[in-house]
Amino acid sequence: MMCAVIISTTQDIHGRAITDFLGRAHGNSVRARHAGRYIMAGLHNIIGGEIYEYAKLQAKTREMATHRMQAYVKSIRAGAIVAVRYTT
Asked: Which of 14, 37, 68, 77 supports an S-S bond with 33, CB 3.0-4.6 Å?
């Protein structure tokens, strides 16, 4: 059974000590939607309001990046990732 990786946006994890720094964890992902969705998003942009197609795309891409980051961290046998940041 493989242990879950702890992910934190803070610099530390309450009740745990950071004993070693193994480097930066990474989990990049870039995705695109098809042209029809871009046209609909463009219309939303003109009339205003949330662009749901892009919001769903952003959430899915962040999830994929997180999974990749977890896989990388497991491969180097680290137990946690601290100070996680996402850029969109």
From this structure: 37
